[in-house]
Amino acid sequence: MEQVYEEDLIDGSTGTVYASKLKVASSAGGAIPENTLQLASVGIRKRWMVSVYSFGMYFDAKTAKPEIERWNTYDIDELSTNLSFYNALIGSKFDKAVKLVLARTIKGSDLQEAFEESLKPRIVHYVKEYSHGHNQESKRRLQSETTEALGLFRDQFDVGSLVKGTEITIRTTGHVLTTYINGEPLRSVESRCLCAAFLDIYLGINPISTSAKEMFAMKVSLLIIKLNLLTVPRLMRRFKSRL
Length: 243
Hints:
By secondary structure, the chain is an alpha+beta fold. The chain contains 8 helices and 11 strands. A hairpin with a 2-residue loop joins strand 9 (167-173) and strand 10 (176-181). Helix 3 (83-91) packs across helix 6, helix 4 packs antiparallel against helix 5 and helix 4 crosses helix 6 (192-203).
């Protein structure tokens, strides 16, 4: 039986244990250094009422704090529902990772299709947001570059099948998205829009899990918001309601 520690979290649907710390290796070639990230939240991805994968969301507290310092005048409850704060998290450069654990064996082609289905409309949104004003040439160039990046990301899952229990970690560092399977680094793809589109799946307006999204925001905001004896019990109730 897997050892569970106090700060670990368990996905209730699959029983998967997510450790409070996640050590991610450096990228292939070493351009992205290894790091140890902190667990913020867990959730489940279902399709047609069937569990596809559970996931844990991690972040680097050391680099996150200076990026979100300007939000320190807000209450933690406000930040957990603040659209601008989530947009800031999606566009931030600090190290983040989503660790997926497959709840069933799936075809690589099915995973490719699922990622494309989720990412393509989000890419359209971020290309429009990140292109320079009404410059159509800039927009076309960014769309072309991001489409190419999506293809490189997608091709990593061109395999026969991925068995139940396979761990897929997708990490964003700056504007670089790195994929790991069972802890081994595969490809790193540099694309601001692709990184934002991927994070939008979990932190955007229509996330896979609203509770995981809000828990992530609350855990990150604890880096900058001072708690008092009155807010701690209320905060603990908020955390428990999202598990």
